[in-house]
C-alpha cells in the first residue's frame, strides 16, 4: 500500500537532517574558523562591510563560499531527473549518502589546514540539502537554519490564541521541534569538539546515517522505486 508521503517528506527525516545541521554549524564555528556555513546571509553582510571599509580583497573572498552555495543549489536542481533513471534510489537518498561521504572526508582534514576548504565543502552540501528537502508532510521546512522556523512558531501560536486554529498550533509545534533538534545537535557537537577535534564532525554521521536508512528503505520497499512521484514543493 502506497503511503501518503514519500520517505523524503517525513517529519522524522527532517528532524534528523536538522539535528545534523546543528552539528555542522557548531563544528564550523568552534573548530573551522568561527563561521556558520549552513546559510549565506552572514557572508553577504561581511562582504558588504569589507567592501564598504575598503578591504576589497577580503570582500571579494566571500564570493567563494557564496558561489559554492550557489553551485550546490544549481546542481541539486539539475541532478534529480537524470538520477531517477538509474532506478535504484531517489535523488534525496543519494544526496544524504553524498553528505555522509563529504563529512567523513572532512574528519580527516587536520585543523592546521586552511579552514576555508572545509567551510566551502559544508557550504556546498548545506545548499544541496536546503534545496532538496523542502516540505515535511506538506509543511514548508528548512533543514539547515532556524530563522523561518522561529517565525513560523510564533505565527502558529498567535493564530491559535486569536482564532483557536488547531492546525496552526500543530504547525507551530512542528517548527518548534525543528528548532529543538537543531539546538540539540549543536549542544552534542560542541561537547565532542573538545574531545575528538577535527573528527568531531563524524558524530553528525549518526543522524545522517539513520536518515539514509529510512530513505533507502522507503525507496526499495515502501515506494517500490516509484520514481515518478515528485516530493511536494518541487
TrEMBL record:
Keywords: Membrane, Transmembrane, Transmembrane helix. Signal peptide: none annotated. It comes from the Bacteria. The chain crosses the membrane at residues 12-30, 91-111, 168-188, 200-218. InterPro entries: DUF1275. It holds the Pfam family DUF1275. This is DUF1275 domain-containing protein.
Amino acid at each position: 500500500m502506497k503511503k501518503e508521503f514519500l520517505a523524503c517528506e517525513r517529519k522524522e527525516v527532517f528532524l534528523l537532517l536538522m539535528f545534523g545541521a546543528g552539528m555542522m554549524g557548531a563544528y564550523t564555528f568552534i573548530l573551522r574558523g568561527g563561521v556558520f556555513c549552513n546559510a549565506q546571509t552572514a557572508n553577504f553582510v561581511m562582504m558588504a562591510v569589507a567592501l564598504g571599509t575598503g578591504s576589497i580583497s577580503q570582500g571579494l573572498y566571500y564570493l567563494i563560499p557564496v558561489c559554492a552555495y550557489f553551485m550546490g543549489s544549481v546542481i541539486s536542481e539539475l541532478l534529480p531527473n537524470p538520477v531517477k533513471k538509474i532506478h535504484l534510489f531517489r535523488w534525496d537518498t543519494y544526496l544524504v549518502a553524498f553528505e555522509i561521504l563529504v563529512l567523513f572526508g572532512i574528519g580527516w582534514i587536520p585543523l592546521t589546514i586552511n579552514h576555508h576548504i572545509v567551510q566551502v565543502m559544508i557550504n556546498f552540501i548545506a545548499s544541496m540539502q536546503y534545496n532538496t528537502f523542502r516540505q515535511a508532510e506538506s509543511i514548508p521546512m528548512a533543514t539547515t537554519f532556524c530563522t523561518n522556523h522561529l517565525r513560523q512558531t510564533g505565527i502558529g501560536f498567535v493564530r491559535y490564541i486569536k482564532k483557536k486554529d488547531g492546525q496552526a498550533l500543530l504547525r507551530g509545534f512542528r517548527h518548534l521541534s525543528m528548532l529543538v533538534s537543531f539546538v540539540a545537535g549543536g549542544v552534542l557537537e560542541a561537547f565532542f569538539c573538545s574531545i575528538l577535534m577535527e573528527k568531531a564532525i563524524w558524530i553528525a554521521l549518526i543522524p545522517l546515517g539513520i536518515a539514509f536508512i529510512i530513505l533507502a528503505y522507503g525507496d526499495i520497499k515502501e515506494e517500490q522505486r516509484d520514481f515518478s512521484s515528485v516530493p511536494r514543493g518541487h
